[in-house]
């Protein structure tokens, strides 16, 4: 079983609860302020709202503690700031401690786990930032419009922190347990927050905010609504490959702009906001490739799923945690790949060895070949779409926490080692 694949959906990112509670309380106080009243009445209203919301959670004390400083303010913006600062402090403390723990780590696998952990906690902070940015201009009329984004990003923050803990599998010492304790309070807050996400409308109506029932009903999705691919993704799937003009070309024979994929990625302009197409000509590219977070809208366009192949052999048995074994890791949102292959050639005896890890929102893979044995495709987080793809492997060869859709894909079960069972 993959170390990251063993995750239980236990919430551990305090981001979610703090953020959502602040939004609901802010909405309540916004209505109260319009009605007027004394400062004492405002404080009472705020206190009642906090108690009402926290009464529905599993960790009531943690919920109320996170908002203790918010009970004496009636300014919605200030409430959100208090919540934001509380969540940020909790995560920042964990990041700081990870650096301290790394200095004391003597086991190479433990040291590697801490490096992975820090990266993932930083990613969780990024998820908090973009969630906060989404609700910064708080508008009750648009709650349901961006609720899906918030749920996806908050779930991503949870996944990143759980993967942080998973990285300590088979390490020596008590570093993993120390990290788990550091994240305990955040875990309680997120457990509360997940309940609020799924019952967001009910919580708002329980607080009897005038006009909210009408607003929520007006945004209910109907069967058949397009809740999937963005417009550029649909155009990408429909386009003739020959009509797609690349920004740069990668070719091993020197006929392109670069000979390696990593060289081409280094040439992508900083803060690129436009679709950036990297044409990768036929060949076997032996390199570990990562499209980093913030490098958005990158496109890999190959000459065919078996003609253009990116291959590597990092694996768990040789001391690399599962998250790091990926031959290709995609972390930039809006990534698209077409007519290309991804492979981890480590073999069944090396256990966890990922060919493709996707930690990117709204990622699309069309006519791709993804081959390995154990843990072939790591659909790590966010929203992902696979169409006309072939995925092969043995144990857990498709796993992860993403909201992933597979359309017209072929899944091939390979022969495992003795006493191993193949499953997805």
Write the layout of secondary structure elements.
Layout: H1 15-35, H2 39-54, H3 60-66, H4 76-104, H5 108-135, H6 143-166, H7 175-182, H8 184-198, H9 200-206, H10 212-218, H11 231-238, E1 248-250, H12 261-266, E2 276-280, E3 283-286, E4 289-291, E5 298-301, E6 308-312, E7 328-330, E8 336-344, E9 356-358, E10 363-371, E11 377-379, E12 383-387, E13 390-393, E14 398-399, E15 403-407, E16 410-413
Parallel strand pairs: 1-2, 2-5, 3-6, 4-7, 5-8, 6-8, 7-9, 8-10, 9-11, 10-12, 10-13, 11-14, 12-15, 13-16
List keywords for this structure.
Pectate Lyase C-like; hydrolase; enzyme inhibitor activity; Butyryl-CoA Dehydrogenase, subunit A, domain 3; 2 domains; Pectin_lyase_fold/virulence; eleven-stranded parallel sheet; aspartyl esterase; alpha/beta
Structure write-up:
The chain has helices at 15-35, 39-54, 60-66, 76-104, 108-135, 143-166, 175-182, 184-198, 200-206, 212-218, 231-238, 261-266, and strands at residues 248-250, 276-280, 283-286, 289-291, 298-301, 308-312, 328-330, 336-344, 356-358, 363-371, 377-379, 383-387, 390-393, 398-399, 403-407, 410-413. The strands form 2 sheets. Strands 1, 2, 3, 5, 6, 8, 10, 12, 13, 15 and 16 form an 11-stranded parallel β-sheet that branches. A 5-stranded parallel β-sheet has the order 4-7-9-11-14. The chain has 12 helices and 16 strands. It folds into 2 domains: 4-218, Butyryl-CoA Dehydrogenase, subunit A, domain 3, CATH 1.20.140; 232-413, Single-stranded right-handed beta-helix, Pectin lyase-like (Pectate Lyase C-like). By secondary structure, it is α/β, with parallel strands linked by helices. Mean pLDDT is 80; it is low at 1-16, 28-36 and 214-227. The chain starts with 14 loop residues before the first helix and ends in an 11-residue tail after the last strand. The relative contact order is 0.11.
